[in-house]
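I had to read the description of the data format several times before I understood it. Each protein is reduced to its one-letter sequence and a matching series of backbone shape codes. The format is easy to grasp once an entry is in front of the reader. For illustration, here is how one protein appears when written out as sequence plus structure tokens:
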Amino acid sequence: MRLLSLEVADFRAFHGVQRIEFAAGDDKRVTVFHGENGAGKTNLLNAVHWCITGQFTPRFQERRLLVNKEAFRAGRRECHVELLFQDEKESGGLQYRVRRSATNEGQTGFEVYQIDRGNSRPIPNGESLLRMLLPPGLISWFFFDAEAIGSLELSGSPEFKRDLRKTLGFDLVDTLLVDLEAVQSKRRREVANQTNDKELTTLQNEMDNIDRVLPGQQESALGLQARLKQIESSYEEVRTKLGKLPQAEPIERQRRETERMMLRFEQERKELDAKVAQIIGQAAPALLLQPLTAALEGKLEQEEVRGKLPAPYSDQLVRDIESSQVCICGRPVTEGSVEAHKIHELLRFASTGALNQRLSDVRYLIRDIERQSASFPVDIALTRNRIVEVDQELGRLEQEYKDLTKQLNEIKGFGGEIQRLESERERLNKERREVTLQAGAMLQQIEQNDRRRKDLKARFEAAERKLVVSKKLKVELDKVTRLMDYIRRSLIDQERQALTILAIELNAVLKRYLTKHYSAKINPATYAVQLVDEEGKTVGHSTGEGQVLKFAFIATVVALAARKTQQKIQWMSEPTIAPLVLDAPFSALDPEYQGSVAQNLATQTTQLVLMISSAAWGEKVAAALEPVVGKRYLIVSHESGAQGDKPIKRLRLNGEDYQLNHYASERTESVFVEVK
């Protein structure tokens, strides 16, 4: 998908009909919208987001009031957004036009057209087309409110893994495997019916029961995860409102910081628990064997003293004397002599090189067991001491969190708004915990059924091999089984390649741009992404470097899907190719990283759309983006009221000054002004 143009009509801050075009070339692929806070950057992001999905970003407020206020007062009751885009997957690059409209009363309209030689042909099921081109679960990867980058979790949740797999096109292969599984089940039922075998029939019936239950469980899990996402969005919206109230703002800010610290210590607590288990697991054999090692070594020394193990001479010494026919004392040892016979007899008691090596290995093992046994009390004590410290810090933070919450509730005024918001926050938080538990329980049931089905399938196949079935049916079943095995192996190989490339590209970005020697690790089981320092210790995602990791991850995923990474994959199915649209992309970053992140975003993406304030458009950001900017617009804010003490905000671009806000205007609105 490549965006070509956008038309907004009476949508939020945008009065009347306004049209913009996006930079859509391969070289000049970046479109920049400059605007101050409140000018309409977030409205623009949501105009595109809503047009495609019918949904809004989590921080978008007052979602029912979409019609521009000035237009509404003038009697216009409907707004619309129309998007023209090109599907790059189709041969020839087919173009589509999407139009979505709404009233403040909740009435909506939606139309999708295919552009064919200048003519628009309506597509009956346009929602399906858009879901195919850009699945709803992936929209957050490509259309992103970057001020909320801190809320992006790379911790490997089931939803995170599912969305990432969709981005990389793996879900289509999963669907194919499900379809083949259904074909395989049908053939197995035919085998069971043909042989009239009770065991096969019982096993197949159990698999059929799981097959009937599993789709409903998976749908319920998706529903719970979607519900959880809505709750998270509402929860964040309530907290944003709370943070805008003057007296509540510093307390809410401090509470957020306390929460971040609690999450960091909770993560460390989990890691420490895992470390304790690892230390015990590694030391357990040594601790069990340690009492035996002293006795074993004593036995070795005793045998050596007796001259048996090893002997005081080696087999090589005896053979050297026989070969040279000269004893070490200088006397001759001629073949057949009594001396030669006596020396040859010594071979029965001489030690060999192999025996000496085995003895050396035994002693090394004893030393290693002793070292592990000696280090265990120290290692486990240090780790458990740290657990105590972390638990104490968590307790302190939890009490601090409660005190801050109490302070918020005790603030008077604002018509009880703080108390109302706090009450709503608590309700949402409780609901979030309940839905999280329900989703976890449902995922556990799904996992149990998956394991049970695999076990039943293995037992069925083992029993089936003992029976005689028709050659045709056996051939058909074998074909499906071999095809499924091939696809699974290919998918596993491709996933491994994708995650490897993702890690390589991520670490290349981090190496170029981070001032510290940090690297990224990806868990192949959960897709969790973790930033670690040189010693392998986890670095929090809330740090400046953690924020860079998140931007680098988003850009790398988009690049991998669009085949723009240095390393390539032969995809089994088409991954998602879409523009990256970011609102306020650099405001959450430390200034030292803004230029490098901008450069990486411009390099990795097929098409990049940025909504950015003048404060974030520094020299480093400008230097990184100017060579690839193909379209540039100002979002100019107009206020109908007088200026008073309010400032005039300006932006300097390429040696020229541009005014970003006006007062005493005909109406309050935001206007797009193209900068040539």
